[in-house]
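Wed. Picked up where I left off yesterday with FAS-associated death domain protein. The coffee machine is broken again, so keeping this brief.
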Amino acid sequence: MDPFFTLLHSFSSSLSDNELSSLKFLCRGKIGKRKLEAVRSGSELFTILLEQQVITSDKVAFLEGLLKSIKREDLLSQLKQFVEEGEVNDPDDEPDVHEKPIEVICENVGRDWKMLIRKLGLSEVKMDRILAANPFNLREQLFQSLREWQKWKGKDAKVADLIKALRDCNMNLVADRVEQ
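Structure written out below (tokens, as returned):
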């Protein structure tokens, strides 16, 4: 399976309807109006761009521009990783050394989870996306926010940073449990 197609498929499945509409609008100079009107998914859009060779696995500048325009830095960083390494490693496949601390935090932090996530430096936009994806599940909102923080920080995601953020939010009991 072509790693570039896998990457594009991953991008497609993470696009919201508004983001797809924005991408279609931005592609108007490259794709005819009739074709664009028929596009119903990111996969269809990427297929057209591939067919017209606007994007290829070694020609990603246009795709980079699209992702910057819709402010999807997460996808942009995956694309840059693909360019540098030749393929993208799925973050879910990597061993997760923070699983226990995240579990403890999710079990013990309640409605004040946003304060914690802000202390960790995650953007409001990313938090809003997570809220929209999990509107009625507080625990899942916190869990996904912590996972997003891990992806964003990568190797720099340290348990010590979680503990410091918890203490900064006066969540000392939770910080003590994470330390244990």
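Quick read: The radius of gyration is 19 Å.
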